[in-house]
Specification:
The protein is an alpha/beta fold. The chain is built from 14 helices and 13 strands. The chain binds pyridoxal-5'-phosphate. Pyridoxal-5'-phosphate binds next to helix 4 and helix 6.
Length: 394
């Protein structure tokens, strides 16, 4: 038996330190924001190379993304609702088409879910089949006069091809929000993800390389123009107590999660290195199996520092589901991220897409399979995974 992920191996050695970090919060009943959150934001901001005020610890990755889109007002510079401008607001809001945000259909649901919830229209652009990330050429083709934002996703822990996307955003005057939920610590040409565009979000969902003991996330507000507003929107748009400049949400992180994350952050880079070593070991062992094109190992872009939140193989020739069944029977952890592209999800039928619109994303959904790659997997477990796959193809 090889689990896909075993969080206890990572957390157990840190439990004493984590309990010590939590204790003053429990004793002092300090649960919301406060020093633990400030301290974590300071530590995380230095990890990302931004100022402390630019790193907002929030309730989840999803909320960080929604907050980003709310802070940019859907990309439309709408006059703020006030008694004097209410009529003007209603006129422009009702006649102006919603801002469009271009993103990938091959990602976790949250990416497009938040675009919808922010009152924007999701426009999909297909992926590069090698990296699984949005193809910048397709992204450029998807831009219309209503486009206000780009939301590239750094899937599985590897950064997108950022230079053409940054150039596109500049050329068309679009806000660029990076979905780095799976990729904190990943880099493109030495630049940390979540810091290259206007804003960038990471998730601390427990399965991420930096995982909380529950839900949490962070928004990096690189474009300083949005810092104050984003901080307000985290607390219902409140500037001074009970003075609300805009409608925001309750997007605060729990102080306890911040304290836990602060302990774990110190280990993040070494966990990345362990995952990278595991990926290298997989390559070595699969190389010896000589499976040809039966499976395709993850492509590592030489411009990228890949943090392997997932190790995703492609299983070709329509064999993915049979291999999955074989691994399930052998109790080898595996998972399909993701079985359905977002343009074919029932809730997005209103966008008018159909099967065949994004062939690379659709094919990826039929072929991808995640294998165990977590930082504390043993060499023997990696060997068991590879051996089980070898037996399947014999
Ligand atoms: C690509 C992507 N975007 C957004 C999210 C949302 O993050 P969270 O689960 O913290 O809300 C996730 C989480 O898995 C994700 O993988």
């Amino acid at each position: 038996m090889v689990p896909l992920l075993d969080l206890t191996r990572e957390n157990k050695p840190l439990l004493d330190e984590i309990k010590a970090a939590m204790e003053p919060l429990l004793v002092g009943s300090q649960f919301i924001l406060g020093k633990a959150v400030d301290d974590f934001e300071a530590a995380a901001s230095s990890y990302f190379g931004v100022k402390p005020e630019q790193a907002l610890a929030v309730s989840s990755g999803t909320d960080a993304q929604l907050l980003a889109l709310m802070a940019m007002n859907g990309g439309l510079d709408m006059p703020r609702l006030s008694s004097s401008s209410e009529a003007a607001y209603r006129d422009t809001a009702s006649t102006r088409p919603p801002g469009e945000c271009v993103t990938s259909p091959f990602t976790f649901f949250a990416t497009a879910g938040v675009i919808h919830r922010a009152g924007m229209r999701t426009v999909f652009a297909d992926i590069d089949p090698k990296t699984f990330n949005i193809d910048p050429v397709k992204a450029a083709e998807a831009v219309t006069k209503n486009t206000t934002a780009l939301m590239p996703v750094h899937l599985y822990g590897q950064a997108c091809d950022m230079d053409p996307l940054l150039a596109l955003a500049k050329d068309k005057n679009l806000l660029l929000i990076e979905d780095a939920a799976q990729a904190m610590g990943a880099k493109h040409k030495g630049r940390p993800v979540a810091t290259m565009g206007d804003m960038g979000e990471v998730s601390f969902f427990p399965t991420k390389n930096l995982g909380a003991f529950g839900d949490a996330g962070m928004l990096i507000v690189k474009n300083e123009k949005y810092v104050e507003k984003a901080r307000r929107i985290r607390v219902h748009g409140m500037k001074n107590r009970y003075e609300h400049l805009e409608v925001g949400g309750n997007f605060r992180i729990d102080a306890i999660q911040a304290a836990i994350l602060q302990v774990k952050l110190k280990h993040l880079n070494s966990w990345h290195e362990m995952r990278r070593a595991n990926a290298a070991r997989y390559r070595e062992l699969f190389g010896k199996l000589n499976l040809g094109e039966k499976i395709i190992l993850p492509y590592e872009d030489p411009n990228c520092y890949h943090i392997y939140n997932q190790f995703i193989i492609r299983v070709t020739n329509g064999k993915r589901d049979a291999l999955k069944k074989h691994l399930d029977e052998k109790q080898i952890g595996n998972m399909i991220y993701y079985p359905t592209p977002l343009h074919l999800q029932p809730c997005f039928a209103y966008l008018g897409y159909k099967k065949g619109d994004f062939p690379h994303s659709e094919k990826a959904c039929e072929e991808v399979l995640a294998l165990p790659i977590h930082s504390h997997i043993t060499q023997d477990e990696i060997a068991q995974v590879v051996e089980a796959i070898g037996v399947f193809f014999k």
